[in-house]
Amino acid sequence: MQNIRHDIMKRLESLAWKRSSPYCLDCKHTTILAPANVNKCGMCHSQNVTRVLPGVGVGPIEWIIKQFLLESPFDADAMFDEHLDGTKETVTVGNTTWTLSNMLKEAFPTAYHGLRFQFKSTMLKRGLIMRVDSELYWTDDIDDWLDRQQEATPSRNKFH
Ligand SMILES: [Zn+2]
Question: How far, in Å, from the CA of 143 to the mean position of ligand 1?
Fold first, then answer.
């Protein structure tokens, strides 16, 4: 995991552990782990133990975190075009009116790609987006999503 704010990573990790259960790849069941050995299945004693996220799938904790991140994908191409076209500047040549992004893409593809690259790096540097396994995600969206998850997780009823 790269380019990910330390505090967000910590929260993603702790939520991933909380939401998932141990899963034995050999007896294919959510299993109670043998005490004193967190990597050992309590039923068949296999060490082939990973995690399961109910209703989503089976995978290591990194995979579970990835499923959470998928809540807020960042589409660099779409965002960059939106950013360029946000000025509402258009270019009219003859009968054709181009948006800024279309004009750049068609007439100056090299400049377009260079600017898009700069746009992405600036957002990464400012921490507005984060990169995990070459995919980009919105930092604030993930932060908000994590806040909502905390509210959504029912706290244990102390009278039971
Ligand atoms: Zn097992």
Answer: 36
Distance 16 CA to ligand 1 centre (A): 21
Q: How do residues 66-115 score in pLDDT, each as one tens digit?
A: 999 998 888 888 989 998 888 778 888 888 888 989 989 998 999 999 99
pTM of the predicted model over 0.85: no
Q: Nearest Cα to 72, choosing from 10, 148, 18?
A: 148
| 83, two tokens | 């950013």
Give the rounded percent of residues in the chain with a pLDDT score beyond 90: 51
Q: Is a pLDDT exceeding 80 seen at residue 2?
A: no
Give the tokens for residue 36.
């004193």
40 C-alpha to ligand 1 centroid (Å): 8
Which domain covers residue 104, as residue numbers?
Answer: 76-125
The reply to whether 10 and 29 lie within a common domain is yes
Last-in-domain residue among 70, 86, 109:
70
Residues 21, 59, single domain; the answer is: yes
Contacts of residue 46, defined as CB under 8 A and 6 or more positions apart, other chains included, come to 24, 25, 26, 27, 40
β-strand pairing of 90-93 with 57-59: unpaired
